[in-house]
Design brief:
Elements: E1 7-16, E2 21-29, H1 38-48, E3 56-63, E4 69-77, H2 80-86, H3 89-94, H4 105-115, H5 122-125
Antiparallel strand pairs: 1-2, 2-4, 3-4
Length: 134
């Protein structure tokens, strides 16, 4: 029931030249374990595909009913530049390759409501609403 009993098998392997990556469906057999961490999986797959752990992107893993087996998808990029170019930002953020800056919800709502008072191109500039002197 330790990490040594974990088996990783790949199916539907494809080399995608256009997106500079290898993509595959991965079956993980892990008897006695609830599941295998993505970090552990990345290390094992990086070793198999002779690449760095930063270039391996596992996602969409589902554990089969009854446990002991999971299936998911893995992308192994040729370079860090290719990964940054083609991977969605949220998956890069998961791996710590990119930092997503979030604006507080309250601030977003306040800005939206301020923009309601503006017309046309003023919205992009974020000018103050004009007071009408009638």
């Amino acid at each position: 029931a330790d990490a040594s009993t974990v088996t990783i098998r790949t199916r539907k392997f494809m080399t995608n030249r256009l997106l500079q990556r290898k993509q595959m469906v991965v079956d993980v057999i892990h008897p006695g374990l609830a599941n295998v961490s993505k970090i552990e999986m990345r290390e094992k797959l990086a070793k198999v595909f002779k690449s760095e752990t930063d270039l391996v992107f596992p996602f969409g893993f589902r554990t089969q009913f009854g446990g002991g087996r999971s299936t998911g998808f893995v992308l192994v990029y040729d370079s860090i530049d290719a990964a940054k170019k083609f991977e969605p930002k949220y998956r890069l953020a998961r791996q710590g390759l990119v930092e997503i800056k979030r604006i507080a919800r309250k601030q977003r709502k306040e800005r939206k409501n301020r923009n309601k008072k503006l017309h046309g191109t003023e919205k992009a500039k974020g000018k103050k609403a004009k007071k009408s002197n009638d």
